[in-house]
From TrEMBL:
It comes from the Bacteria. Coiled coil: none annotated. It comes from Microvirga alba. The keyword Metal-binding applies. This is Creatininase family protein. The lineage of its organism: Bacteria, Pseudomonadati, Pseudomonadota, Alphaproteobacteria, Hyphomicrobiales.
Length: 250
């Protein structure tokens, strides 16, 4: 169910144990071949699929689509807010949800730059609302082992505007993908301890801008290996895992 599509009476009649989900995404550059709203579209896609399966068992909030993308600001079109702004804004939304009595709240993240501040939101809100069960999930982290079996590129081939994100966009909205501009592999590695990709983290974190990580291309990974069928497989894996987690919250 979509929060904004219900009436106040319908919201008032709901069981307060129903999981309430807020997607946090991004509006930022995704290389030469994907639209700026790629992360927002991917998050919305997964939640549409979840809603189709569990329509009366989940309550999906309007998404927050402009989030923490300062590391992409070398590229035209990127929109961003400060971490403190996102913390305040998302927390205010969750405070509203809690004020209406809902107890199971889930942040669903579809942008890598939101992970750190998402954890702060989780801890800040959770410590002030002991009556609530609050969690945060990032889509590529909830089914890593299964997603690794889908990846065709070697280490570093999934990251940003990559094999996975391009596959998902070919499934979600093929017309938005500029097929003639899909590039090959791009990923500038650094210290061994800091190297990572979408599915495999490094031993530590080293700040680099997206321009540095991508060698100026805006792409981290290998989108040339993308396909709509791969996007369909990724969707099934992620939504299966998401549905299982959401069910556990009830």
């Amino acid at each position: 169910m979509r929060w904004e599509k219900l009436t106040t009476l319908e919201i008032g009649a709901l069981d307060r144990s129903i999981p309430v989900i807020l997607n946090i995404g991004a509006i930022e550059q995704h290389g030469p071949h994907l639209p700026l709203d790629t992360d927002a579209q991917i998050g919305a896609h997964f939640l549409r699929e979840l809603d189709a399966r569990h329509h009366d068992k989940v309550l999906i909030l309007p998404p927050v689509v402009v989030c923490a993308s300062a590391h992409h600001m070398d590229f035209a079109g990127t929109l961003t807010v400060q971490h403190t702004t996102l913390l305040a804004y998302v927390t205010d939304i969750l405070d509203s949800v809690a004020a209406h009595g809902f107890r199971n709240i889930l942040l669903f993240n579809s942008h890598g730059g939101n992970q750190a501040i998402g954890q702060v939101i989780l801890e800040s809100f959770g410590s002030r609302h002991p009556e609530c069960q609050v969690a945060m999930l990032t889509w590529w982290r909830i089914a890593t082992d299964a997603l690794l079996t889908v990846q065709e590129s070697p280490f570093g081939g999934v990251g940003h505007a990559c094999e996975f994100e391009t596959s998902l966009m070919l499934l979600i909205d093929e017309t938005s993908v500029r097929r003639d501009l899909i590039p090959g592999r791009s990923h500038v590695m650094t210290h061994e301890w800091a190297n990572s990709d979408l599915l495999r983290g490094g031993k530590g974190s080293l700040f680099r801008t997206m321009a540095e990580i991508s060698g100026g291309s805006g792409v981290v990974g290998d989108p040339s290996l993308a396909s709509a069928e791969k996007g369909r497989i990724i969707t099934g894996i992620v939504v299966d895992s998401l549905a299982e987690i959401v069910d556990s919250l009830r």
